[in-house]
Design goal:
Length: 191
């Protein structure tokens, strides 16, 4: 759970309407009001293994793990007309390292299947729906390459499991129009 106070803020109505118009035009594309991120396989190098072994209780070899990258979130306006600013993405990058990757937002122990071992904010191609340079929070994860995880690994490799959703609880949700913390008071700028 993230408890930061940088902005995950409401986007001004003019920008929300522009984003909605653009989103409707692009409804079939990945750009349409995306909320979650993307998953892709990766090959672990020596630096990756050092970071993984800093978390693991016993030393692991490359053959023991399956590694993958996740674009967890970005600075674009999401489906709720909110966004992370670049500072918030940086704070999330620091906080995500060592966190568990779970299935279905259910924190049960048997839903844990991977762990984040590195995270950084990267420049991405393109721009946000309101014209800012696009930034993405990319996290690197590992899971044990064993029988118990073979199904989820196969689904990642096969492109079945390729979207993610990030769960967090901000300390404040500030309207970028009136400055109200929407966790504490009502604001008329909700869509």
């Amino acid at each position: 759970v993230w408890r930061g106070n940088s902005t995950y803020s409401r986007v001004p109505r003019r920008s929300r309407l522009r984003s909605l118009r653009e989103g409707v035009k692009q409804m079939g594309s990945d750009k349409y009001m995306r909320k979650g991120g993307m998953v892709k396989a990766m090959e672990a190098g020596d630096a990756d293994m050092a970071a993984i072994n800093a978390i693991a209780l016993e030393p692991l070899d490359k053959g023991d793990v399956y590694t993958f990258e996740v674009v967890a979130c970005d600075n674009d306006i999401d489906r709720d007309f909110e966004r992370f600013d670049e500072k918030a993405l940086g704070q999330l990058a620091e906080l995500f390292v060592g966190k568990t990757v779970i299935k279905d937002h259910s924190p049960r122990a048997d839903n844990q299947f991977a762990r984040v071992y590195a995270a950084e904010v990267e420049d991405a191609d393109g721009e946000t729906s309101d014209g800012l340079p696009l930034k993405q929070l990319v996290v690197k994860c590992y899971t044990l390459d064993n029988e118990a995880n073979s199904q989820v690994i196969a689904e990642i490799k096969g492109g079945i499991k390729k979207e993610v959703s990030v769960s967090f609880m901000p300390e404040s949700v500030t309207c970028s129009i009136c400055g109200i913390d929407r966790r504490k008071a009502w604001c008329e700028h909700r869509w």
